[in-house]
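Hi P.,

Sorry for the delay on this. The queue was packed all week, but I finally got your sequence through. Input first:
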Amino acid sequence: MLLPCIGQIPQFLLQRSSTTLLRIRPICSSTIKMAAEHYTFGPYKIHQSEVFYSTPLSYAMVNLRPLLPGHVLICPKREVKRFVDLTAEETSDLWLTAQKVGRQLESYHKASSLTLAIQDGPQAGQTVPHVHIHVVPRRGGDFENNDEIYDAMDEKEKELKEKLDLDKERKDRTLGEMAQEADDYRKLFL
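Then the structure:
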């Protein structure tokens, strides 16, 4: 369990579910050291410095190969392959987290819209067997045809699985670059 930063206790967003009361709050720099060293994302280990927001059931992380500025992933903490296998509490928490993160990143990146997407299963383009919501702040003209973002997402997922560099424009970022972005985003939730 994470403890709030001393002197920086954020307002809590309380959401009552059928069986539990959820506290939703950011992870701040001093709490990072108390968190687990890694989060699980399917077969991958995600370093804690890449995670900028966490709840008891979900976490938000920066993307190794973002399609656009602010493209992040929201994941359940429990490793769950398919959306239909989430509990009601996990589903609610995942979407409330996506809503809160999306609102902050849309404002931060001066975007006018959000794309929220789940690829649920291999035939839907999911390559990491762990439920995740793509949250992508959008601006007019960021793609020539608006729906091209879905093709780009499919391509990105395939590249991650195959570890190929098919898209020469989009390079993997370093842990340092992702940690800096996560730290910038983390400040939005204090």
